[in-house]
Amino acid sequence: MSRLEISTPSDSSGGGPQSIVLDELFCRPQFSILQAEKEGLLLRELTQMVSLHRTACDPYRRIMDVLEKPHEAYESLAQLPYLPVSLFKTHHLKSVPTEEVFKVMTSSGTTGQAVSRITLDRHTADLQSRALSVVLAHVLGKQRRPMIIIDTPNVVKNRKMFSARGAGVLGMLPFGRQHFYALNDEMELDVIGLREFLNRHSGQPILLFGFTFMVWKYFLQALMESDFSIDLSGGVLIHSGGWKKLADEAVGNAEFKSALEEATGLSRVHNFYGMVEQVGSVFLEGDDGFLYPPNFADVIIRDPLTWEPCANGTPGVVEVLSVLPRSYPGHILLTEDLGVVHGVRDSVGGWAGKQLEILGRVPRSELRGCSDTHAFDRAPA
Amino acid sequence: MTPVDELKESVGVGMGGEYPIHVQQLLPTRRSVDLGEVLARLNSAPVVAPFDPSRMEFVGEVSRRLGRRARGLPETQALAYWMRTSELRRLEESFLELGSEQIILMPRGTVFHIPPANVDTLFVYSWVLSTLVGNRNIVRLSSRATDQSNLIIDTISEVMADHPDVALASSMITYGHDDAISSIISSSCDVRVIWGGDATVNRLRSIPIPAHASELVFADRFSMAAIGIMAYSSLATHERNRLAELFFSDAYWFDQLGCSSARLLLWVGADDPRSCATDFYDRVREVARHKGYVVDTSAAIAKLAQAYGTMIDADVSRYIARDNTLGVLEMASFPDVRGEFCGAGLFYQLHAANLTEIVPHIRRADQTLATFGIADADLRNLVTDLRGRGIDRIVPFGQALQFNRYWDGYDLLAELTRKTTIAVKDVVV
Question: Is the ipTM of this complex over 0.85?
Fold first, then answer.
């Protein structure tokens, strides 16, 4: 995997000419740019992206025309206009002509719910996959490792099951080799297979990937209940998917990690935060348990009463910024997640930048009104 | 075999309830009951003549007790006030005008009410009217109870204890989205009353009712308000504050999701409305602040998404949202923004030199027009110009949510009774 290669210059991708800032953000070690400098770089790039999308995406232009933001004049990242992420569910927003569309990604969503539609051209798709690889290289190194997927092989094989989970697994497969799926269709741990896999690769650094809840419930719990002891001290676990189900069992990140280390010796555990609307810009958990934005992304926490940025330490709604989305105006998004930035770490090398904690989804409101007898509408079709 | 019988067979139940179906009963008393038992009890209850003294006394007593307990609950206060004894007398008088020597009004029998999930007082209104005219009533309530709806239910339950005849003829139950249960209840009703979004209405309508039964449907509606610019400019400060208060209760009581709460606000007159509009919105914000109205995070995000979506779909010229209690989208043309709505204080503002300008844009779904400072003659002209295409009611500010027997073009008292005609003269053979 070469990392610093300039993307295939597809004839006239929506991204237009290569950006110097973008190259710099890719070239420099991830999580190394100090906040003030990074904000300067992102502001320059994102200001241009606002005007790029304004030209290329008519719905985006209509919004910007109303908001009356003069696009040259942003003085900080917080001044840049953001879109509510759910707009990608209600409207088709794209900044490339149809003939340049490479693929349209859709978000997960329970049956009946609207899904996000994200339009990618080759350029943006390429930026996303390069971004993911440089971010993960920060904790995985450049070698592809033998990989344990804490899921069932059907999650990628069975088309009917194809989902965010499947897409997540597929996205991670290139970072490992000799993939082993640790669970069967009944979500039972394949102890024999796991033992064989570990014997075969003993002494080698292993990559493990899974969804947070499944790692806890079907991997760790199963290991603890069995009398099978394994040594994963040389491994790295990447996991994602949120803490909601674990919070119900009163398990937080600290408990999660100490239980894993105790049972398997696995100490290098990294949670990540990302979304289909900004693939590639994944926030990765640093050595202190906080999530850090990679070079090409940042986060702002906003007060839901005023939409002004919150002070560090104050929870609010998470806004994510990324210089990767070129083919759709998803560069600055107000999410439906709650989070808090605990501080800004100014260390050269290692982990620098905003220290983010995700607190979960914004709870659904129970508004009143006579428009629906909800129970009936939610009935399965 | 009717489709209902087939369905009953397929879910393995009969009306006798060999296989009991458990539903949660809220009234007359809170307990888990078998649906068959509920229906058997209900069907054994006699119907009584319209405005029978027993029913009047019952409703009057509910009103008195609710009124005492509704401190700080304006929606419940309004409900109690609406069904106070003196109002019931007036209602009775106007009801009697529907009949004559040749036309005798009698109840229809059993009425199945399906009120909306989230207007915590609405379930009472159609039930009270139907109770007054003597019907038996079964109400399917949402399981999402609020403090307010619980207070109302408990109060009714208490009063029912002293009125066993009304208790026998009344049932309020709650159950999940179970079409089998709705089918069984529907199969034995004489009138079905459905409130809800278009999807809900269509879904419920596919469940058959007996051939003789009738159905009242209250689907998704859209409402607006109009302010005369001249009239507003000449108001004194305290009058402007009062108008803002009235508008607040019209718009915010049910988080702006009541069908009769305005979403579109028309400023009518030749002058530029902006200074009046700004002044008015600031006063409404102040009322909201004073009343402690809070927009939660999820609603605030939904408002933002709705506002931005509207900028894409319609001609928005400006977006004003100084805080998240009141957001205004200034429209350059009459927007088609009916349907999915976020609520919680988002308004489409439109300037019209003349009220008749809106005529071509009015649709069947348009229900209430709340007005201030517009001449009666202009309102009458509007109604005749519309030829019944839309707008069912025009009311002053402050009365948008005031329920009455005329709703969505129906006269509920007439719909919930049956007219029996009687020719009084013998034919001479």
Answer: yes
